[in-house]
Amino acid sequence: MSDEAEAGVLKALQAALAAEHAAVYGYGVVGGQIGGQRLAEARSAYDAHRAGRDALVREVRDLGGAPVAASAAYALPFAVTDTATAVRLAAELEERVADVYSDLVRASSGERRGSAAAALREAAVRAVRWRGESVAFPGLAERAGSGAGSGAGSGAAAGGSASPSLTVSVTP
Fold first, then answer.
1. What is d(CA 44, CA 27) in angstroms, rounded to the nearest whole number?
2. What average pLDDT does this structure show over 12-26?
3. What is the dihedral of CA 13, 14, 20, 23, to 10 degrees?
4. Which three-class secondary structure state does DSSP give residue 104?
5. What is residue 75's three-state secondary structure?
6. Which of 10, 33, 148, 161 has the fewest Cβ atoms surrounding its Cβ within 10 A?
7. What is the pLDDT of residues 42-75, one digit of tens each?
8. Beta pairing partners, 131
9. Alpha helices of 34-133 — where are they, by DSSP H?
10. pLDDT class for 37, splitting at 50, 70, 90?
């Protein structure tokens, strides 16, 4: 792999790691507002994002990088005050994580690409479970006509403020 390609992979790994940090934080908020069977679903997603975060930390280190740290807090895209808004946040988290993993799929190859594709698929499936509907191509910003995943990184991925937005997407 060329130095340029490896730098692109490292950048995409760091963006995915930042997104996983944000998702772990976001699911803490979701868990505080949700109950019943959906609480078990939120806990499962929280655990999955923690595992994804830990795996990405190892991958970044394996490439000789210093893993991006989690922020102390993240700005939520809207107020989460009840079960309905908690479910909406969970769906939003998953869609944003899928966006970032699509960038990692594009930047990587081999086993890493397969792992990134699996993570994208898992995030897309969780988004469908939370939202109740799907999109044709999960992880593609064009699906909603938004700027997410279009290289307009923010928050921790772009060296943002102490309270970055949960939008953590960087196109390598």
1. 10
2. 98
3. -130
4. helix
5. strand
6. 161
7. 999 999 999 999 999 999 999 999 999 999 999 9
8. none
9. 37-62, 83-107, 110-131
10. confident
pTM exceeds 0.85: no
**Euclidean distance between the first and final Cα of the chain, in Å?**
15
Structure-token pair, residue 54: 């830990």
Kindly report the length of the chain: 172
29-48: b or e for each residue (b if 16 or more CB lie within 10 Å)? bbbebbeeebbebbeebbeb
Q: Letter for the amino acid at 138?
A: P
Residue 110, burial from CB neighbour count under 10 angstroms (0-12, 13-18, 19+): exposed
Tokens standing for 87?
């479910």
Helix (H, G, I), strand (E, B) or coil at 103: helix
Closest CA to 93 of 123, 132, 72: 123
The two structure tokens encoding residue 104: 């990692």
d(CA 36, CA 71): 29
**Coil vs helix vs strand at 165:** strand
Whether the CB-CB separation of 19 and 168 falls below 8 Å is answered with yes
